[in-house]
Amino acid sequence: MSLYMLRRTGVYLFLSLAAFLSVFPFFWMAVGATNKSTEIITGKMTPGSNLVVNFQTLLSQVDLWRVFGNSFLIAIVSTILTLAVSSLAGYGFEIFRSRVRERIFQLLLLFLSIPFAALMVPLFVMISRAQLTNTFTAVILPTIASIFILFYFRQATKAFPSELRDAARVDGLKEWQIFLFVYMPTMRSTYAAATIIVFMNAWNNYLWPLIVLQTPENKTITLVISALTAAYTPDYGVILLTTVLATLPTLVIFFVLQRQFVQGMLGAVK
Amino acid sequence: MTRNVMRWTRTLAIALTGISMASVAAAAAELTVWCWDPNFNIPAMADAGARYTAAHPDTTFNINNVSQDEINQKLQTQLLAGVSDGLPDIVLIQDDNIQRFLQSFPGSFVPLSDSIDMSKFADYKVAAATYEGKSYSLPFDSGVTGLFYRSDYLEEAGYKPEDVQDITWNRLIEIGKDVLEKTGHQLIDMDYNDDGQIIMMMQSTGQWYLKDGNEPNIIDNPALKASLETFQAMAQSGLIKPVSDWTGYTGAFTSGEVAMVPQGVWITGTIKSMPDQAGKWRVAPLPALDGVDGATHYSNNGGSSWYVLASSEHQDEAIDFLKTVWAEDVDFYQGILVNQGAVGSLLAARDGDAYKASDPFFNDEPVWQNFSDWLAQVPAVDYGTFTPEARLAVRAQLPNIANGGDIDQALQAIDAQLRQQMQ
Amino acid sequence: MAQTRLDRNEQINGWAFVMPALVLLGIFMIYPILWSLWMSFQVGRGNNFSFGGLANIQRLANDALLVQALTNTIIFFIIQVPIMIVLALLFAVALNDATLRFRGLFRTILFLPCVTSLIAYSSLFKSMFSNDGIINQALMSLHLVSAPIPWLTDPFWAKVVIISAITWRWTGYNMIFYLAALQNVDKSIYEAARIDGIPGWARFWNITVPMLKPVILFTTILSTIGTLQLFDEINNITQGGPGNGTMTLSMYIYNLTFRMMPSFGYSATVSWVIVAIVAVLSIIQFMIARDRRRGA
Q1: Structural domains of chain B sorted by starting position, each given as residue range(s) with its CATH number in brackets
Q2: Shortest Cα distance from B159 to chain A (angstroms)?
Q3: Domain of C264?
Q4: Which of A42, A188, B158, C43 has the greatest CB tally within 10 Å of its CB?
Q5: What is the maximum alpha-carbon separation in chain C?
Q6: Residues near B354 by Cβ (< 8 Å), separated by ≥ 6?
Q7: What ipTM goes with this model?
Q8: How close A73 gets to chain C, by Cα (Å)?
């Protein structure tokens, strides 16, 4: 029993240390948002009184509501479309096997490793020929068929019990009905995890939106942060404040979806 | 044919989306400008724009804050894709970065020497943006260098301002050791990911990383070798405080940590951003390299110029604007000197009143007059095409040199990396 | 007869499910990939390029910087990926234990880093690890070091910073996958093992790891590709320096494209080096998997 206690204490110590390291930069970021740039670079650790000033500076430089609206629009539409298209394909590749599709899938995995910088120029030519530059469509379209999410869903589908599908077939459900009414509810936690990831990727996407979105009124919050960071004399107070603001939505999404995990776990314990 | 159709479609699209009304668009021109520093070139451009709009109410300006990295990314992607949608009319580009644009994307920039008399500007600025006999830039700020120093620290260590006037780097190192010992302040701070310090020392002798067009000038370049040796001596004596980025760099002297700042004149605004240090700063000419032929006290670091893109639909307005304000308005240059500390390259601007004024921040020295005198003596060098490659190769060796690495081996390594990248 | 109809149905359904993704990928990947392949046979500057045959491949052979970028990438890969995956697994297993107190709190906190944007967290780490930054101040006030550690100005320490940053940001991310997968593991297997007196670590190695194998494989492949494409962190923290000490393949490609004389042909060629590496790794992995299957 004492060995058990010892091991337990070890686990708690390990987790506490990891938790401290995880959370410290957030603390630093939040404190920084209330300090002046000069105080931040010299490592001031206590909350200051510059929050309002930082806020005013930020508001004088960017149309914050607009920028957030743009980011939300892009991230939400991307997430819905990506989850739909990629989970369909992940399911399709795993459930209905054929030699041709296996080959295609292996090829896709290889494509996943091509650095985006190599594809950016031709992609930009395509988008501009389609008269789509400076539109959100141009940001969203190339990201919908995400090989990575497709791959993720295929891996997750391996755990989808085939008995469920067989039973549904016996009940006379069509394949699309099985996907919609059996697969999707069963794989709730997979969808939840994928939502977090896709939303974050869309929200944080940088290089492609930078090239495609051209006018200030179409900028996303990530582009704003990068512009602030790349400034000649970066104002770290304003940067950290913007970082806090930009992190909040992904944090909320995460907290909301986390319940899905918790429910899944409770269900499994029962 | 297709081009016309496309243009027509676009006009229609613009009219439909109501971004701008056709009647207004026909008469008025809005010039879009990309530049990057909200404390420097952005307000300078805004001032120039306001002056032009006052005389030509139909021409307005839309000045965007776009960082240098973003300019590289967007301009290059679009020029290569052959897409001009969303490109600005006027763009600011750093002098040592322009040749690769001119050579990689011929025809993408408007040769301004066709309409503007380039002899009005400092030679070395014009040379930086000349390609196949034509000059493409409207030269803007100069990076003429000076040695900014804290006279109070110097005094504390027993030195007078005369002691740093027209000296050599070796002498400065001796002084630096004394200052460190007596006051605890290191001499300078430096980001080892930036070779500006090396460039300043080297260019003061009229040498550059490249010569005769595009031949690497590394191994048999005594000025570069002496610059690296000087840098190593300073680092090994503990006179350099290493920093990791620009904020750290400026922080080390605005906080009073280091005693001196050898830098281009554009750093003046940053130094003066600390009003409580007024009267403590002075400026001397840059120290000269020891034992190198052609060593002077005058050099350059940084500086950028304006370019008009060939894709601009308002080329005429853009050129006329640069010509009437940036190439003629001496009064305008006095304003940006006082407000932004911008030392322009228009030679006539030096005769204005602001340039003659003395500055109480710098102990009532006539700093601007000094800088413009030095400006005229900066040895001109040909940046060549592969300066970015050369700078990356030199930077790669700086940490090793600072730690006492062999200079000849470092030169070999720089030469090897540069030659490999020059293709 | 019925069998073939069923087969045909399977085929139709198989294609129907993957078609939307394939069409989109066909449009937005195939053309850019073909362009990039074609470009890798071109030499020249910017828009002035011409067919160069295998010139770019010859250039690869003499490129010392490419070798350094490759070496750095491999160092990051060998050190960082195992640390991260083992940590993520340990976290996931510890948090999956229903008897653990503050489980929800720990889980939330450990997830937190992966909600930050790459640019934001990179600049955060850069400011924390600067010479006078909070990390050095903390280490010095705890008397762990006597002089500030040159985190970002020394090639070795800069690598340490990059590895710490990536581990901080991505461990929770990997943990998500493991936790999600652990929910699909039947708890009764653990119960049976516990009753049989099999110790915790043996349960970990003999039950958890094999059950999570598909997910571990998945995250390993992702991390491999992620390391090969490591760019945002490098670009925002060190830009490949100091002394090329943190230059990675993707940073090098970016430099070739945007910082140096733009030679798109050569940067496309270097991109294909990454693809070739992944192809080789996949073949190795495939052969290992096959051998194991034979052995079993």
Answers
A1: 30-142+302-351 (3.40.190.10), 145-300+376-421 (3.40.190.10)
A2: 30
A3: 58-295
A4: C43
A5: 82
A6: B333, B334, B335, B337, B338, B368
A7: 0.84
A8: 17
